[in-house]
Amino acid sequence: MKTWVKAFCFVAVFLLGTSAAAMAADVRYTKYNIHAQVKEGRLANASYANYTDPGAGHVIVPAGSAITIDKKNRKGFEFTYGADGMRIRFECHSKRMGMGTDEYIELITSAQPVSFSKLSKLDQKGMKEGKAYVGMTKAGILAALGYPAAHKTPSLDSATWIYWANRYRTLGVDFDASGKVAAVR
After folding, report:
1. pTM as predicted
2. Least packed by Cβ within 10 Å: which of 40, 77, 81, 144?
3. Whether 34 contacts 54, CB under 8 Å
C-alpha cells in the first residue's frame, strides 16, 4: 500500500508540475509591429533588421498582440501568434544588435498589455498599415515599423532612422526638430 501511495503522489506531483509549467508559458505583448514573411505554410520569418516590405508573403504581427515565446537561443527565438497558431522564427544577431536575444525580447515586448491610445490618429493609421507617413511621431514610427536595426540606427536620438525594406533596400525616416517625420525616403 505504501508503494501505491508513493506512486500516486509521484504521478500527482508530475502532473501538477507539468500543468504549472504549461500555465507559465512565456506570454508577452508586442510593443511594435513585427514584420514577417511567410515562407512555408504557417511558419514565417522575422528579423532584428525589421524588413518592412520583404515582398510576397509579408505579414504584420500587430503592435499590442499577445504572443507566446516557444524557444530561445543566441541566434533568436520562435513564437506563436494568433488564433490559428502562426509560428514565427525571429532571427537575432547579437553583434549587430548590440544585445542578446533576451535583452531584445525585453526591448520589443512587454509582460503586460500595451496601450496605444495616446498615439495620434496618423500614428495609429501608420501602425495599422505598417507604414511611415510624414507627420508621424517617433513613438508612432516605432509602433508601425518596429525597432530600427541598431547597426543602421545606433541611437533613437538620431534625426534619421534607417530600416531595411528588404534584404537589398533600405528605408530612411527623417525627423524634424520636434520629433515628427519630415520625410520618408
Report:
1. 0.84
2. 40
3. no
In the chain, how many H helices and how many E strands?
5, 11
Q: Are 88 and 105 in contact (CB under 8 A)?
A: no
Residues 6+ apart with CB under 8 A from 96: 48, 149, 150, 151
| 75 pLDDT higher than 60 | yes
Q: At 143, list the grid cell.
A: 509602433
pLDDT band at 6 (very low <50, low <70, confident <90, very high): very low
Q: Which helix (H) or strand (E) element contains residue 43? A: strand 43-47
CB contact set of 80 (below 8 Å; sequence gap of 6+): 67, 68, 70, 86, 87, 88
Kindly provide the residue ranges of all beta strands, DSSP E only, lying in 57-180, ordered along the sequence: 58-61, 66-73, 76-81, 86-91, 109-110, 160-164, 170-175
For cell 533613437, the residue is: 156
